[in-house]
Design goal:
Layout lengths: L4 H24 L4 H23 L5 H19 L3
């Protein structure tokens, strides 16, 4: 199961945008709720990456670790809303 170049580019751009989305709104204090959504989006991408690596019989350790970190950020930022 090979990924096309276009899909790889899309995933990379989505991860880069998500990383910027986690940091920038809180750093600039502009719409900080976007950090929560960006972290949730990154967690979704990492969950799909875990499934992809498991299906290919590869180690899902790296995407699983990033998934846990993204969930930690999303839950932590969400708790600031309440």
């Amino acid at each position: 199961m090979n990924l096309t170049r276009g899909l790889v580019m899309f995933i990379g751009i989505a991860e880069l945008a998500g990383a910027i989305g986690v940091v920038l709104p809180m750093a600039a204090n502009v719409a900080p709720w976007l950090s929560t959504l960006a972290a949730a989006g990154l967690a979704t991408v990492m969950l799909l990456a875990v499934f992809y690596h498991v299906r290919r019989h590869e180690s899902p350790a790296a995407p699983a670790t990033l998934l846990l970190l993204a969930l930690f950020v999303a839950v932590g930022r969400f708790s600031n809303w309440a």
